[in-house]
Amino acid sequence: MKNSISRSRFSAGAAAAFAGIAAVKSRALAVGPQFTYKYASNISVDHPLNVRMTQMWNAVNHETNGRLKVQVFPNNQLGGDPAMLTQLRSGALQFFTLDGGILQSVVPVAAIQGVGFAFKNSAEAFATMDGPLGTYVGKEIEAKGLYAFEKMWENGMRQITSSNHAMKNADDLRSFKVRTPPGRLWVDLFKSLGAAPTPIAFNEVYLALQNHTVDGQENPFAIIDTARLYEVQKYLTVTNHMWSAFWLLGNGDAWKGLPPDIQSVVSKNAAKYALLQRRDTALLNASLEDKLKRRGMLVANAETASFRAKLRESKFYERWKAEFGTAAWDLLEARTGKLA
Ligand code: X2X
User: Fold this and answer.
1) d(Cα 314, Cα 300) in Å, to the nearest integer?
2) Mean pLDDT of the 311-325 span
3) Contacts of 198 (CB under 8 A, 6+ apart)
4) What DSSP assignment string belongs to 163-203?
5) 98 CA: nearest ligand 1 atom
């Protein structure tokens, strides 16, 4: 009697153990993912950022055997950047890509990537942000309860579009009603250049241009194309006045809530797909000038010496050196040479 009880207990236990293994194996199918998170961005689904993000989160889903599923919300579906940043900080959103210049409202030094005429091109900018300056900014981001992935994602060198005329020199910029992203450095940059900037989140830009709330805006070629800004802008001036790129951010608690094995799958893929996205975007930015001309835009090159002179005259660099602090500024100038 005693034996038979223990035998049946044993078999019940073994059966439960085997069932447990089977349940773990088929967990994704039987009960769905262990973690369902959201990723959001401000730009359209066909921009390389979202093409590669979609591939990346699919790879993560596959490599975690379905344990982490991340739904992609492109094109401001969850609101404009400031609204999405609030959602990220509260944990309503778990992953988000945001330009450092907009993240400035929470992490002041994050705007340093966008100092006017600091970087000659994206390659130089990435070399800087993949190095000690990126590490410095990343630590400041983490001090604010957010998680920053190491490799930034490309937006590109920014160019100016307008409905009125080309922006070939500083005189053309005088009183120019230009939209900037919501960030203090951006607004100050265009004020220093003599323009009349208005910060507007990207989800409202097309309408603001169409309604002539503003006469122009500035963005890399790939954004001008994928957001169809050529429909509401006539003049494109190649200014390369600043670089722009996105941090891939996580909500700190949501990130810490993932087991280490899942975290390492995400980190590995985030680094891999960021590099692919940089290459795609660089190729696109370099090849779009002709396409935008065919779409009817008039493209000209700026003579940027007069822009730079304005920034020096208005003490733009001194102001931002004081704002960011010498530690960060020195890391920037170690790459760019003396700015202030
Ligand atoms: O808001 C913009 O202009 C954009 C899309 O370039 C950024 O995210 C900074």
Assistant:
1) 26
2) 98
3) 177, 178, 179, 180, 213, 214
4) SS----SHHHHTT-EEEE-S-HHHHHHHHHTT-EEEE--GG
5) 8
- The tens digit of pLDDT for each residue in 166-184 reads 999 999 999 999 999 999 9
Name the amino acid, one letter, at 272. Answer: K
Confidence of residue 282 (pLDDT cuts 50, 70, 90): very high
Q: What is the assigned CATH class of domain 32-336?
A: alpha beta
pLDDT of residue 27: 53
Residue found under tokens 């951006």? 186
pLDDT at 61 over 80: yes
Confidence band for 32, pLDDT divided at 50, 70 and 90: confident
Name the residue ranges covered by the structural domains of the chain: 32-336
What are the C-alpha distances in Å from 106 to residues 39, 88, 137, 143, 331?
A: 19, 12, 12, 10, 21
Residue 307 contacts residue 193 (beta carbons within 8 Å): yes
Give, in degrees to the nearest 5, the angle at Cα 30 between 28 and 34: 40
115 half-sphere exposure, CB direction, 13 A CA radius: 33
- For ligand 1, whether the C-beta of 43 sits within 6 Å is yes
Mutation test of ligand 1: which of 102, 161, 209 has the most ligand atoms closer than 8 Å to its C-beta? 102
Whether the CB of 99 sits within 6 Å of ligand 1? yes
**92 secondary structure, DSSP code:** S
| Residues 241-267 pLDDT 10s | 999 999 999 999 999 999 999 999 999
Atom of ligand 1 nearest to the CA of 179: 3
